[in-house]
Amino acid sequence: MKEILVLSGKGGTGKTTVCAALAVLLKGKKVLADADVDAANLALFLKAQTLEEEPFKSGWEPVKNEDLCTSCGICLEKCRFEAVREDFSIDSFLCEGCGVCAWFCPEKAISMEEKEVGELMYSETKYGPLVHAELYPGEENSGKLVIGVKRKAQEIAKQENADLILIDGSPGVGCPVIASLSGVDAVLMVAEPTIAGLHDLKRLKGLLDHFSIPGYLIVNKADLNPDMTQKLLSEETGFKPLGSIPYDPDVYGAIHAATPLPEYSEGQATQALKKITEKIENIIL
């Protein structure tokens, strides 16, 4: 069983569009995962039907028992984050979960409990099972939730005896991306032919080299800047080229229809993706 992760240096390069297309085009038994827990949208493309939901807890938050509170004010005095209000209630947005209020409360009126920061979901699609998640607005520990998504996908893949886990990753090179790299066999980088795209490739190449993970490059909207496309596909970036996708208005139609591109159009972009899929099956799988 192989794990392939699709990444991009920034949002909007076409990463999810490519991943949804590969979910349709790649042969064999697949398990799909959306590791972009801050803004997961692969389920929308694949018209997923959610079967299971479970809360994701990470970190700690103070819970106050008003019956035990004597309004002594020690919690207000000790809290350095100003999360305790004048009426001794606790502002959850300012609280950092350090626990000093619970530690010093003489009446033990405050206890620290695990905080629910998101949801982990298991859904069904016509292309295979999908594991995805939602991190609640303003919450942290997205890396831990990404690990939860990957572990669930791996469990399902073993149960289903799948050939492939296809993962739609987060943009950038931050904590969620680093968490999603764990255990993958290859990374498909989707980039645009711009100077910013070249810069993003170099940043991601340094990250992949650190973890000794092979990287393959797909250039999207390639014909908008042919010279830069050739530069990105050269050996200079360090990525092995898989091919390029031309600018195609049908892509926007597919996004508007929330449908994978190969099921919406047989246009230029779809034909390019079919050739890229053949290379993936021959080189990586």
Overview of the molecule:
- This protein has 285 residues and is α/β, with parallel strands linked by helices.
- It has 11 helices and 9 strands.
- The protein is 36% helix and 27% strand.
- Strand 4 (110-125) and strand 5 form a beta hairpin.
- The mean pLDDT is 94.
Based on CA inertia axes, which overall geometry fits?
A: elongated
Largest sheet, if any? 9 strands, mixed
What is the H/E order? EHEHEHHEEHEHEHEHEHHH
Instruction: Give the mean pLDDT.
Output: 94
Percent helix, as a range, is 25-40%
Tell me the number of helical segments per DSSP (H or I, 4 or more residues long).
Answer: 11
Name the structural class: alpha/beta
What's the assembly state of these chains?
single chain
Question: Number of DSSP strands?
Answer: 9
Q: Give the low-confidence spans.
A: none
Query: Strand arrangement, largest sheet?
Result: 3-4-5-2-6-1-7-8-9
Beta-strand residue percentage? 25-35%
Rg over CA atoms, rounded to whole Å, is 23 Å
